[in-house]
Amino acid sequence: MKKYFQLLVMIFLPLYLSFSQSTTFQKVTAASYLEFKDVCFINESTGWVVGNLGSIYKSTDGGQNWQKQQSNINSHLKSAFFLDEQKGFAVGDSCKFLSTTDGGSTWKVDKISAIPSIGASIYSVYFADNLKGWILASSSSAGWILSTTDGGVNWTVNLTVTAKSMNKMKFFEPNKGIACGKDAATIYHTSDGINWTLAPTPLLGGFTYSRSDLRNIYITSANEAYIVGWGSLVGAQPTIHLKTVDGGATWVYLSQSESNRTYDNLYNVWFKDANNGMATGGATLGSLVVRTTDGGQNWIPIKAPFGSVVYGITGFGNKVWISGGGGLLAYSSDFGDTWQLLTPMPSGTIYGIEFPSSLVGYAAGFDGVLHKTTDGGETWRGGYLSAGNKTINIQSIFFVNENVGYAACSYQMVAKTKDGGTTWSEIIPASTSAKTTSFSAYFISEDLGFVVGKLDDGLDIIYKTTDGGSTWTNKMDVTGKNLRDVAFKDENNGIIVGLEFTARFTTDGGTNWSIPTFINLPTGFDTKTANIYSVRFISENEAIAVGNKLILKSSDSGASWSYIQTASANQLNSVSSGSNLVYAVGVKEAWQSIDAGNTWTNIFDTTMFEGTLNSSTVDPNGNAWFGGASSSIFTNRIWVGVENEGQTIPHGYELKQNYPNPFNPTTIIEYKLGNSSLVTLDVFDVLGKHVAKLVDAYQPGGNYSVKFNPEKLSGAVYFYTLKVDGKANSKKMILIK
Predict the structure, then answer these.
(1) How far is it, in rounded angstroms, from Cα 396 to Cα 485?
(2) What pTM, to 2 d.p., does this model score?
């Protein structure tokens, strides 16, 4: 049998190692968590986060590791409150009220029927002891505060607010609480827990506000409390900060100096003592964290190198935890001077993906997520791109080599890295207008590059640099349409494309841009809806452009384009090429061409890809990579070589040899998880073809056993690959028939 196995390996392994054009794809990354709305720590070690689709996670080591708890609901959770390490509550949509008496190992689910609207959400919960508690619930047009004296079995409505929604409620001590809602005229306070009094509407610093949503509260003493809320760049509406010194009876607006003033929503506020506090929100230009050291008189923005909205904050002394969109979890041990990202893979739609070498790759996108691999895509390290204290949506990336790269972002910003993505600098500063966007960057060398985008609807801009972004020249209104992509084959010859069937080409390095001709357009072709989103050269003179239900090919460097007939019925977002293959991906479609773009086959796998693919690239080894939603990255590269056989996946993860082996007809595969993890277990043949998916789930730590019964497979050598949070390990097995 040993000789039989060795013969198979000698025959098939070389074929596998040279095989890089498989049409079978696998998902190699995914977001670690869903959106988190609240974080609650009962001491410096033990805490919980809650969020979308009933997500509840617990940490017992200060947030370094998190274990998923089973809530048994799919409703979004809004808030959590714990009396001690065992007794806690979580609340959310559809009047859901969850309670635990064992630290979250089990949760009891109730629906509070006393809430007047069955579709309302519960946004806040507070218990003074095991029996006495309060909740705040709200619909889009009304709000209620309810209390219980029997641990949540029965509830009584204490306050009804009509025609306005309510947002949050906090208590300083039993019976003494404050609630806020839709606007500055919706602040209530109580001193007995039953009767709630409406406070006078505070003046808002002389600024004009289109709305004045009040998002959250923190009470520092029996008399002092803070409320934070609305802010907007549109109309220059500063972030709202309010303070009371009489227990909520009256409130004053805390005006900030122009240098400290922010223009974004704040969703939460927390104080470690009477003077020192933080407030969190964002994310127009990234996560927003502001800090005060003088009792709220001055709120100073501090660096928070994340891109998601920060909804939750809590802490003990200088130790602070925050949570937010994209599954963001972060920790500071020094009151916000520095931050540690706790989320392995933050969630964001992948708009750009690049492999400057066979080992080093980058993927970037929504909320400024920036993920990196240094082992050819087998494992990825999640993170964000932060430049100039801003973390903005990344529209595309372009890397000249492993270390030097550029990112085109929303709000016009273009960023550059010289150290492989560790640090970034703004080389085109961010603007304050949401209508400005840099959509694409393309560099012929580290010094010579182009960026295209828009300054306003219908106003395009083309930037050019010859010194690596230190200085720029620009051309505006070249096409009168928003530009979406740019590609060059050399320093003189390039192509730009954009909305409403816009394309131009240059032969003089961008000094002049000419209108191309179009051939074979279908009868009745609507140029108004035929947006072109992506273009790439696939050879010396050939280029492919894709867009809304269309694929175009040029054989003369963009001077003329032929319409390629395909069955595409949706928007295509990205085109890439390599190893004689061309790929075009988009909404529920992934097209492959093996003849330089003349004919195409849709290889979209509905069991693998998840709706829309937004980006694509081909690495130097010819492997295709697609980027999708929720930090999903897909590839047709297969890791089934023997180089990692027998290794133990770090941090307590272990893949065991199947038994029996060889086998017929079934075999058992066992593995161990040190912590709760995203797990896939797949089987491949020696050519890298995916033949079976045995596991694809988020699993708690523990020992697992999977039975494999390959009824339809032929006798041969196969490889089974366990991937745990992006780290993979493979072993061989032999099926005898």
Answers:
(1) 9
(2) 0.85
